[in-house]
Amino acid sequence: MLTDATREKLKHVSTATLATALFKRGLRRQYLQDVHPLRFKGDNMVGPAYTLRYMPAREDLNPISVFQDRAHPQRKAVEECPPGAVMVIDSRRDARAASAGSILVTRLMVRGCAGIVTDGGFRDSPEIADLALPSYHHRPSAPTNLTIHQAIDINVPIGCGDAPVFPGDIVVGDGEGVIVIPAHLADEIADEATEMTAFEDFVTEKVREGRSILGLYPPTDEQSKIDFADWRARTGR
Amino acid sequence: MLTDATREKLKHVSTATLATALFKRGLRRQYLQDVHPLRFKGDNMVGPAYTLRYMPAREDLNPISVFQDRAHPQRKAVEECPPGAVMVIDSRRDARAASAGSILVTRLMVRGCAGIVTDGGFRDSPEIADLALPSYHHRPSAPTNLTIHQAIDINVPIGCGDAPVFPGDIVVGDGEGVIVIPAHLADEIADEATEMTAFEDFVTEKVREGRSILGLYPPTDEQSKIDFADWRARTGR
Amino acid sequence: MLTDATREKLKHVSTATLATALFKRGLRRQYLQDVHPLRFKGDNMVGPAYTLRYMPAREDLNPISVFQDRAHPQRKAVEECPPGAVMVIDSRRDARAASAGSILVTRLMVRGCAGIVTDGGFRDSPEIADLALPSYHHRPSAPTNLTIHQAIDINVPIGCGDAPVFPGDIVVGDGEGVIVIPAHLADEIADEATEMTAFEDFVTEKVREGRSILGLYPPTDEQSKIDFADWRARTGR
Amino acid sequence: MLTDATREKLKHVSTATLATALFKRGLRRQYLQDVHPLRFKGDNMVGPAYTLRYMPAREDLNPISVFQDRAHPQRKAVEECPPGAVMVIDSRRDARAASAGSILVTRLMVRGCAGIVTDGGFRDSPEIADLALPSYHHRPSAPTNLTIHQAIDINVPIGCGDAPVFPGDIVVGDGEGVIVIPAHLADEIADEATEMTAFEDFVTEKVREGRSILGLYPPTDEQSKIDFADWRARTGR
Amino acid sequence: MLTDATREKLKHVSTATLATALFKRGLRRQYLQDVHPLRFKGDNMVGPAYTLRYMPAREDLNPISVFQDRAHPQRKAVEECPPGAVMVIDSRRDARAASAGSILVTRLMVRGCAGIVTDGGFRDSPEIADLALPSYHHRPSAPTNLTIHQAIDINVPIGCGDAPVFPGDIVVGDGEGVIVIPAHLADEIADEATEMTAFEDFVTEKVREGRSILGLYPPTDEQSKIDFADWRARTGR
Amino acid sequence: MLTDATREKLKHVSTATLATALFKRGLRRQYLQDVHPLRFKGDNMVGPAYTLRYMPAREDLNPISVFQDRAHPQRKAVEECPPGAVMVIDSRRDARAASAGSILVTRLMVRGCAGIVTDGGFRDSPEIADLALPSYHHRPSAPTNLTIHQAIDINVPIGCGDAPVFPGDIVVGDGEGVIVIPAHLADEIADEATEMTAFEDFVTEKVREGRSILGLYPPTDEQSKIDFADWRARTGR
């Protein structure tokens, strides 16, 4: 369960900081490789993962008429992805055809979903970039998904960008990319990353003022710890 | 022959819509893979393909002095590419050296060509991005083309971005990428894509208003068809 | 030694022009492949290379605590890279984890360094893109460098983006990418590129006016040489 | 259902001939890309697919102790793959760690399975190559599968070597590689490939005797058809 | 023109030695990358290049029936490749479908051609490996060439394995791979490589006897030159 | 220090078993990716690493004449690599030119070295495959190393096949590939792997006799442990 408090905290930390917090726990592969924001609008994407798995398309099973089936997994997923959730698509890192297009992504947005991520590509990418919904992919790709992808499973564990994604894991996207936090760690990672962010903001301020990183980052000098305590007191963080 | 009517229609449809129209005819590889606009300026690139084929450069045949030959295929192509045509370069998907630079691209622009595409990279890419001429490549690449490419053939069938390109095929580029329409299909594809675009615009409007995609996209509900007819009547499309 | 005069000249020529000047001397691999500016701000990056070599990280040698060591090569390098120099990192073209983050890059900026380059990726890339310091990488990458990289050597000859980089080589970055000039050639390359740039500017002007590139670029027509001489006289270049 | 008759026919045709028979039906992606026999022993592998899906391993879920769980999908699959079936593993084309090792493959062999295929790699590959069981992979890979793979699903539709594989599809391997025949087509494809093989054997004999391929392959000359009829009568095929 | 004397010499030198002789002349890209012998039988492949160019297949132009056309470039090439020549196919380094199969390769063999090379893959590769004709490819590939390739040009300059190949260039294959010698250099390269081979054989003998490579390879010690002269006198080479 | 006892033990365990022993200690990247034996002759390669680092070649620094310098790092390394050691070359996973050829490898063999490994390719690979010295590379590559590599450092920490290699680490190669054991762990890993190998041999015997892997591998059934104890007593292992 993603609490409002944790969601709020995760809105204000970076994927880089989260990656370090996960690294400290031995989790080194939670960042999605080669997945980029279509256009970052300043607010982090945060939500539990709702997954969609694609397999290679067999031509006879994937004529354009398959979408007339209301139970087609891609269409079903778009209607059932819970509000607040992030749809994460396993496209086998293959962007030669689209994972989805602007109409489906618009529907997700209208339905109140928190974002959409694929390790393939989106079509209508300029329109998707304009939407308020956060979206992440590898690169634009105009061909319909049927060209090489067949949607086969909803809400099963998948890989995306070489990272493991389990339904319900907490997905966070910023201007850099996307990271996946195992569900049971979300609260503690959010707390730790918030603390780390305060410290990093303090360090950045000091570095801008001309201080060396030695003894400051990490704060191996006692004075650095004292200064940080002062800074927190002063800034209220 | 690209008629003015077809050119005009193709100005107002997306490569994604065109890809679907081609997919319905069994053509799945007409979209150029890994080829991106240098900077999209809002108007589609449309024109018949005029092709240039590169082979790997042999060092002794490619000193800088080759450009003193007025018959050098790259320079010849730049002077002979017809106004209204799109120059498409087969760079064997290799962007380690440039396919062309800003001076040649400027010349194409001044001569009234419709655009330039390579599956390699351009040099002087910031300057080319500033030009009015639509341009598409894989990534910026400063080294002169002689470093790894030798221009060898003009206006022969080529591959570009893993797509087949025959001279005279109709090339369309938008903010997403580039697609190639076999010449004999251009008129019917332009018509069909125009119809599809009207429907997609209608669907997008309905989805934004909150309607589900089920029964609407595709319009398996009778009501969707009625609503679309109304919309067309109302909007004049 | 990078003289002020040469630095100034290199501020006003492009990596494409430099690549051609190096090509004429048989140097075909000085451009860094797949390395892009985070955000180009209009001024070329110019400075001698100060290098940092990464090797694959062995997990037991790379816990987060290594940064408590003031002699850690990455941190040492950030404090010792000379003002005016460009830090060039050999990340083995592997961007699965970061080469550095915004705090270290800020420190380099405050210390007066001229720029930072990696053939991997930076974390905190949106923040780094905002800094005044020129920065170049392959793609954003949030994971801490310890995830796959171990900093092992400072200021040794390295590869970066498949180009050879010796400490002291002159590194130039523009809106396109980064090129490395062997130290002993810097002055003559800067001179030659400045001359070439004047000629290219002249040619661009003529092409914009409608002149053919044949006989003009290169200037095999005698008239082209005369016109260029006139242009130089007129423009004072 | 794979009948004995069809199994027998598929024992004596090549993946190349099968690929052509599938191509004629519009199926172009049934051959597994980059998957090779460890050591072909002269008999085709034939059997229905029993699939195993791997996802990227999350470190905390994949300590060495997971194999103590008798329900671990990899171990369960090895005990439950039906005799006569071919185990096909979706390793996401990632051979950086093993898909399985010699003990599990030996168990499959003893249990009467027909073969094992992965688009990753096997460990203990020299021992596996020595086994009577046909085996196919991309390349040898010593690290335990836990290093990067987590077995997650048994007998679901998967991708393998970029080909779609549904449980029950008929998998055929020869000295060249592996191809997948959709279950409902197995009988007719086996028949057609058997006919094609007879013709190809005839053609090969004629070509060896010095005949041109023109008019013979395909048999556009009437005489070629007559000669083939004679050959069939004479050879009893 | 490939003389008998040069052909004979090239039968007895390695692609490695030839690569060095070409390197000395500034030719660094004549070795075909990622192209391997199907099964080397001890005799070098030597012959002038007869080229075949493939482009990406457009589905509507490549039904199985195209081979009924006697003028189909692939079939035509197989019947017209001159005896003694090596057929070199530009498959754009794409082995997802075959470049040719055993029947065509058998026909080339029977017609007296010297070998066949592709930077893609062959189908029926076990049968081709058994033929007396030398053959080189990237990897086995069962799908018919129509799946992704369309034969489009005969005997034009091409790229193969990233090397430039002009019709008539001399192609040499050994147990390692394939190299291309520009036609006008064939005689002198054959002579030089023959001399180099004698010296390398001498050096190998000395190294096996325990001598250091320093001063011997290259022969910077005067004694090495004397010993080599003795060795030549003694061995008659 | 590699003791005789440890060397002997490592002669009789597989890289797969060693990978698992290292995995248990959190070391997941010690296996060299994409590195294969030229021809395995039945005996493991075992020895401490002696490293050689290559950087991208700058053309002016790498004419053929560089080998006249006795201090050239490649030649020096071949004369100084200690008997019993394994030369490991960091070729940046680039096999477009050779890492070394048969003469140098023969010299290493004669000098009593234990083997040679590169993550690039060897030239004269058929001759090297015939030598008694164990050798491992990615693929054959005829061009001289000067074409793209410059030997720059001897016995520094390197990457090879994406694995970290420190001078003195223990390198083991078998019929599958190569793995690197951190020096300080060599004795305990050799002991543990020897124990594991005994158990795996026992398991293999039981599986061949028809026993299920469940409860046996790992031995979660008490009976499995008893049977193994009996087997050890009986076989003296």
UniProtKB/TrEMBL annotation, chains A, B, C, D, E, F:
The positions annotated for binding substrate are G101, S102, I103, L104, R123
Q: Name one GO molecular function term.
A: metal ion binding
Keywords of the record, alphabetical order, are:
Magnesium, Metal-binding
* Tagged with keyword Transcription: no
- Pfam families attached to this UniProt entry: RraA-like
Cofactors required: Mg(2+)
This chain belongs to the protein called: Dimethylmenaquinone methyltransferase
- Show the SUPFAM superfamilies listed in the entry: RraA-like
Where along the chain is Mg(2+) bound? D124
- Origin: domain of life: Bacteria
